[in-house]
Amino acid sequence: MRVTASKLRENVYRILDEAIATGVPVEVVRKGKLLKIVPDKPVSKLDRLKTRKNIFVGDVEDIIGMDWSKEWTELK
User: Fold this and answer.
1) pTM attached to this predicted model
2) Could you report how far apart the first and last alpha carbons of the chain are, in Å?
3) Average of pLDDT values for 1-29?
4) Taking the CA of residue 73 as centre, how many other CA atoms within 13 Å lie in the half-sphere pointing to its CB?
5) How far apart are CA 73 and CA 76, in angstroms?
6) pLDDT band at residue 76, thresholds of 50, 70 and 90?
7) pLDDT (tens digit per residue) in 28-67
8) CATH assignment, 2-63
9) Residue 71: band (very low, low, confident or very high) from pLDDT cuts 50, 70, 90
10) Which are the contacts of 23, defined by CB distance < 8 A and separation ≥ 6?
11) Please, is 6 exposed, middle or buried when counting C-beta atoms within 10 Å of its C-beta (0-12, 13-18, 19+)?
12) Are 15 and 8 in contact (CB under 8 A)?
């Protein structure tokens, strides 16, 4: 969408909300120069996770046969 600076000033919130909703950049013409307002691409929560080192110490196969009955209690 291309608008002049005056039109942007008149409808700034509507134009910005439309850019966010559609993802289409807004081009603003001011003194013969073109400026762009580009919505940032959302980052998924999974992409924001920090990578962690493996924190399990020992052989993973050892946990298969573990007896957890002493650690487990029923919910009351």
Assistant:
1) 0.53
2) 60
3) 93
4) 2
5) 9
6) low
7) 999 999 999 998 887 678 877 888 877 777 787 877 877 8
8) 3.40.1620
9) confident
10) 39
11) exposed
12) yes
> What dihedral do alpha carbons 44, 48, 50, 55 form, nearest 10°?
-30
Q: Name the amino acid, one letter, at 27.
A: E
SS3 annotation, the chain: CEEEHHHHHHCHHHHHHHHHHHCCCEEEEECCEEEEECCCCCCCCCCCCCCCCCCCCCCHHHHCCCCCCCCCCCCC
Q: What residue ranges do the domains of the chain occupy?
A: 2-63
Q: Which two tokens stand for residue 35?
A: 């400026």
